[in-house]
Design a protein that fits this description.
Layout lengths: L9 H5 L7 H15 L8 H17 L2 H10 L9 H4 L5 H5 L1 H7 L15 E7 L1 H6 L1 E12 L14 E2 L8 E6 L2 E6 L8 E2 L12 E12 L8 E4 L15 E7 L6 E3 L2 E9 H6 L1 E7 L2 E7 L8 E4 L15 E8 L6 H14 L5 H14 L1
Parallel strand pairs: 1-9, 11-15
Antiparallel strand pairs: 2-7, 3-6, 4-5, 8-9, 10-11, 12-13, 14-15
Length: 370
């Protein structure tokens, strides 16, 4: 317990160094306030004195001008004759804000008669093509809407009666010893008014259940997880306050042919052995329809061809991605006698020279295993 007639160094009281930054000061004071607050130590005079001491130290050191004077002149620079006199009648909520919110269960709340409505989320499933090129979709959103009968106030007369508990302030103030604190009024919930004549349509809620039809414009280039915001289409606000927003979250269905990676489109196209060996013109599917693509002679399975500008439009404009076509050579599984005969003749005539990759591979195997 501090000795009467003496004042400890403020930095020592809070347990911080003299170069402590504001966040360190705040953290140290929070710790001391939670430990020594009178509400947590009823009847403990020493704890009360410690709390006063820490509060005085923080009040000075948290103010840049007072801290500068204290650093230069010590206690004499601030002219304190004790916390009770220097801060008599001061509402500590105004000084310490959210610190006392942790002690008393909720920070300082300003009085307001209206509040903004909650935001809503709507999950929308669209096709691969709709995601790529955009679309307009009609949706029905279940949501409460503002009661027209009372204008969202919940009162038949469209206005409430001044709360008798807080006198319309929206908060009640308690004085304990040398300081006072403010708490949100439980009677009116901080609005400053109570409803005495509930609206017959909404029963005092200020809103009624409904289902709203909306047209949602989906821009080109969206993907799964893209959010489209519709301002003011969320829940109505409390007591006539502004509505929240509606967020439409896109979910793109899988495509039977295409796979998407960002703005790029990938697909696999099967080709025959003869097309790969001799070359061919293929009709390749794209988002814009079929497109002729040239496959040069000797194409190997897995070869990827790029179709520039045939991918998905960029979400914010400025062109499109590309499409990548991977060819896969399809081996025939049911051969006629004549087909088998011709292939055997080809194999005899071609020899190893017709398959350079196989020749190179098996040469490496012989080197490794002898």
């Amino acid at each position: 317990m501090p000795v009467a007639g003496t004042k400890r160094d403020y930095y020592e009281v809070l347990g911080v160094e003299k170069n402590a930054d504001p966040q360190m000061l705040k953290s140290a004071y929070r710790k001391a306030a939670l430990k020594y607050h009178p509400d947590r130590n009823p009847g403990d005079k020493e704890a009360e004195e410690r709390f006063k001491e820490a509060s005085e130290a923080y009040a000075v050191l948290s103010d840049p001008d007072q801290r500068a004077r204290y650093d230069r002149f010590g206690h004499a620079g601030n002219g304190f004759e004790g916390f009770g006199q220097g801060f008599a009648g001061v509402n500590l909520n105004d000084i310490f804000g959210d610190i006392f919110g942790e002690i008393f269960g909720g920070g300082r709340r300003s009085r307001t008669r209206t509040s903004r409505g909650s935001d809503l989320r709507y999950n929308l499933e669209i096709s691969f093509e709709e995601a790529a090129f955009g679309c307009e979709v009609q949706v029905k959103v279940p949501r409460p809407k503002r009661c027209e009968a009372c204008g969202g106030t919940g009162s038949r007369s469209k206005e409430g009666r001044t709360c008798p508990t807080c006198g319309g302030a929206g908060e009640v103030r308690f004085t304990q010893g040398f300081f006072s604190i403010s708490r949100t009024c439980n009677h009116c919930g901080g609005t400053g008014a109570v409803i005495t004549d509930p609206c017959g349509s909404c029963r005092g809620a200020g809103k009624v259940e409904s289902e709203t039809a909306l047209t949602v414009k989906i821009p080109p280039g969206v993907d799964t997880g893209t959010r489209v915001r519709l301002a003011g289409e969320g829940e109505p606000g409390e007591l006539g306050g502004p509505p929240g927003d509606l967020y439409v979250v896109v979910h793109m269905r899988e495509h039977p042919i295409f796979v998407r990676e960002d703005d790029e489109v990938l697909c696999e196209v099967p080709i025959s052995f003869t097309q790969a060996a001799l070359g061919a013109q293929l009709d390749v599917p794209t988002l814009d329809g079929k497109l002729k693509m040239k496959v040069p002679p000797g194409t190997q399975t897995g070869k990827v061809f790029r179709l520039k500008g045939k991918g998905v439009p960029h979400l914010h404009g400025g062109g499109r991605g590309d499409q990548h076509v991977r060819v896969v050579i399809e081996t025939p599984t049911h051969l006629t006698g004549r087909q088998r005969e011709l292939l055997e003749q080809f194999a005899q005539a071609a020899g190893e020279e017709a398959h350079p990759q196989s020749k190179s591979f098996f040469a490496k195997v012989r080197e490794l295993f002898g």
